[in-house]
Amino acid sequence: MILLRIALRSILNRKLSSFLSLVSIALSVCLLLGIERIRYSTKQSFETTVSGVDLILGPRTGPLNLLLYSVFRIGDATNNFEQDTYKEILKSKSIDWSIPISLGDSHKGFKVIGTNQNYFDHYQYGQGRKLEFRAGQSFETIFEVVLGSRVARKLKYKIGDLITLSHGTGEVSFTHHDKFPFVVVGILKSTLTPVDDSLHVNLKAIEALHWDEEKQDRLRKGKIKGSDIDEANVTAAFLKLKSKMDIFNMQRDINNYEKEAIMAVIPGLTLRSLWKSLGVIEKSLIAISFLVLLVSLFSILISLLASLNERRREMAIIRSLGASKSSVFFLLIVESVSLCSMGILLGLGILQGALFTAKGFVESRIGLSISPFNFAENDIYFIILIFIGSVAAGIVPAWQAYKNSLADGLIVKT
Amino acid sequence: MEYQVRLNDLHFKYPKGGFSLRIPDFRLKQNERLFIKGPSGSGKSTFLNLVSGVLKANSGEIFFRDENMSKKSSAQWDLVRGEYMGFIFQQFNLLPYFNALENVILSCEFSKKKKIRCLSSDVDMEARHFLKSLNLSEAQIHQKVSQLSVGQQQRVAAARALMGQPELIIADEPTSALDYDLRDQFISQLIKQCEISKTALLFVSHDPSISHHFDRVVDIRELVDRRSRARV
Lengths: 414, 232
Ligand SMILES: Nc1ncnc2c1ncn2[C@@H]1O[C@H](COP(=O)(O)OP(=O)(O)OP(=O)(O)O)[C@@H](O)[C@H]1O
Ligand SMILES: [Mg+2]
Description:
Number of helices of chain B: 10
Mean pLDDT of chain B: 89
Bound molecules: adenosine-5'-triphosphate, magnesium ion
Oligomer: heterodimer
Helix content of chain B: 25-40%
Helix content of chain A: 40-55%
Strand content of chain A: 15-25%
């Protein structure tokens, strides 16, 4: 106890060097745990971009490719598959529900998704969260569009606005469907997934978008009825099966489908393997933060070691008061550990503060949800590791102090 | 208990360096105040380190409070040092990051026995008592030790050595950093307090001008064995 008091006073006495060590430990704690937290949150939100889906159906291509454009809406869908094929697959008794999506159109750089009511009824993200409307409701006619939250916010659209869609997914598109305006009928709540960046219209609307002007004119004048329009070809579909047991059978059946080249992937597995392929970045970030930690521990070691010479007399004094030789050793260990503990606390404080302040910003700008106030298991391991590191950093100066004190006895000659 | 310290044919040699010391017979009576003089390098500090158990003799016997300590471990010596001894060194006796009062109390924090032996109701009052009787003012008691003069620092060190009724105070040239007037004053105050608390004093200095305060004066060269000295 008295050793702890002496250690704390001594740390306070060497204000500048203690402060620097403290800050460097705090920063490395921040970095290590911050990276860990971001990694954890990213992985979490990544792997739950879509949830509650057993299979993703699409034209035969690489599984990652299918995942990228169907879930993340990254890149251009290479091709569609026939409505007939889709209908044939849907006949399977093991399918609970299916969400078809048709990609290939855009609006001011945001993707347009052709789909149906199932999208709003069944699509899930995170831990089984359903889509909710911030305003309005889902589309009913083919002239209606539902906006993702970011689309509405970025383009400042509100319910009742008229917008036009363009063919192709580029920002600047030449074939504007000017004659074919859509009215905004619904705006979704933020999900922090690619849904926020999408515009949703009826599958039939996608089909009608690609008609010639004359036919579109007739549609607008009501000469063609909505019920007469075929649904557009589907780019991909999210399938939910009645029983998990059927997943592999269903996947095999789809992959072996003969009339058209289609395939099915299990999103969870594919998401995880995609995450793994991004793992290099993750690992190098962690490696860097470990290096920073190592440097901070060395800074403690060096500052303690440098202080030892002027503290020889201090050690002799406590020895003369009856402190044992090992007390001299432990005094230095206690100092190192106290410095580290304070650094850890400071670091955690800074980190929580920073995450708390940055939460809103990160969620709206990067679309990443971070939860400041939970302790992941890894965090505790890291803290224990830093703690052990601090003991280790104390050992060299402690041993040196011990040797000095043996040589000096009670009478220090310097 | 007859003798506070008794050495019997004690031999010591530094593992590195050629200096060795043989003490055929040395006795310090209980409550005796002894002045040990001798030129620089004659082994006075070495002798004190032996008596306080910090250095281990190669052979011979050492008795403390009539108990044979020759075979005792360094941990046992640590206890004895904490419980029965007080120390004053030449300079820088105090921990710089505690104030004067805290420095004095420190000796009771390392030893429960010293704490129990305090006459006042608590260590704080006891420490104030010694600081006051060594002419330190209330303001000085709470001052950072680095802001005290060397003479004041030495008196704080003396107060700490006196805390908790030690049986032996070991002082290694505590006055050599003080000027002449202060020396006399410091020593008479120290001896007075030792008399009150019946503490033996082993005082080492190469300055013979202060030796008249003491019960007995010996030269370290008389203590050590002639034959061993001839070999040095
Ligand atoms: N740690 C050590 N290792 C080897 N030799 C030492 C060591 N410490 C002291 N000596 C030697 O022992 C001898 C006695 O030293 P000591 O410090 O006891 O003298 P002293 O009488 O206290 O001198 P001073 O009056 O200058 O303090 C010296 O010759 C010194 O060189
Ligand atoms: Mg000396």
